[in-house]
Amino acid sequence: MKAFTRETSTVVAIPGVNCDTDQIIPGRFLKSDRAQGYGQFLFHDIRRDESGELCAEFPLNRPGAEKATILLVEDNFGCGSSREGAVYTLADHGIRALIGPSFGDIFYNNALKNGIIPVTLPTAHCEALANHLAQYPDVEVTVDLEAEQLVLPGNLGTFPVKIDPFARDAILRGLDELQMTLTYLERIQAFEKARMASNPWLDR
């Protein structure tokens, strides 16, 4: 997992309340080899027309949008099935953070496990940011995980970024859960050695 400390980027606003995981990545692509990259499947069926061509009006297809690593989404983003592929496709596209009023619970946790920061921001502030982006599409937003702050452009303000402390520590260090466990390997081995010494019958 790529470490996340502080990300400053332009932002692309993705329309749609209740954007579910099937819209983020249609199920038919989940058997694809991830080594080839899932980024190509991001929002496939709402981003492309029936012939497979990119729709010019879809926000992520507009000039310069490919450079953005932060998305502004609407309420209940990532609802629906538990497919982790929805997070894979965002990560492989280069997305590092999401800003929205709320997220699907399983999607939220999957995002953290893959180093994507879902920042919860009240609806009114999300709408204010969307309106600001409509006028000034090149402004940047900062998600600072070390300082636990979301810094919006202009006079839109600064807001807290609060995630589970264990997840925050892992993401700051760029470690997944298994790698985090292995950082305690010496202590685990010492415990096991002492346990076997005091309970030799366990080795029978």
Automatic annotation (TrEMBL):
Enzyme Commission designation? 4.2.1.33
What InterPro entries does the entry give? 3-IsopropMal_deHydase_ssu (IPR004431), Aconitase/3IPM_dehydase_swvl (IPR015928), AconitaseA/IPMdHydase_ssu_swvl (IPR000573), IPMI_Swivel (IPR033940), LeuD (IPR050075)
Q: Sorted alphabetically, which Pfam families does this protein's record hold?
A: Aconitase_C (PF00694)
Q: Which domain of life is it from?
A: Bacteria
**Catalyzed reactions:** (2R,3S)-3-isopropylmalate = (2S)-2-isopropylmalate
Q: Which UniProt keywords apply?
A: Amino-acid biosynthesis, Branched-chain amino acid biosynthesis, Leucine biosynthesis, Lyase
The protein here is known as 3-isopropylmalate dehydratase small subunit
NCBIfam families for the chain = leuD, PRK01641.1
- Please name the GO terms that the record assigns under molecular function: 3-isopropylmalate dehydratase activity
Q: Pathway, according to UniProt?
A: Amino-acid biosynthesis; L-leucine biosynthesis; L-leucine from 3-methyl-2-oxobutanoate: step 2/4
Q: Please name the PANTHER family in this protein's record.
A: 3-ISOPROPYLMALATE DEHYDRATASE SMALL SUBUNIT, 3-ISOPROPYLMALATE DEHYDRATASE SMALL SUBUNIT 2-RELATED-RELATED
Identify the Gene3D superfamilies for this entry: Aconitase, domain 4
Q: How does it assemble?
A: Heterodimer of LeuC and LeuD.
The text of the family note is: Belongs to the LeuD family. LeuD type 1 subfamily.
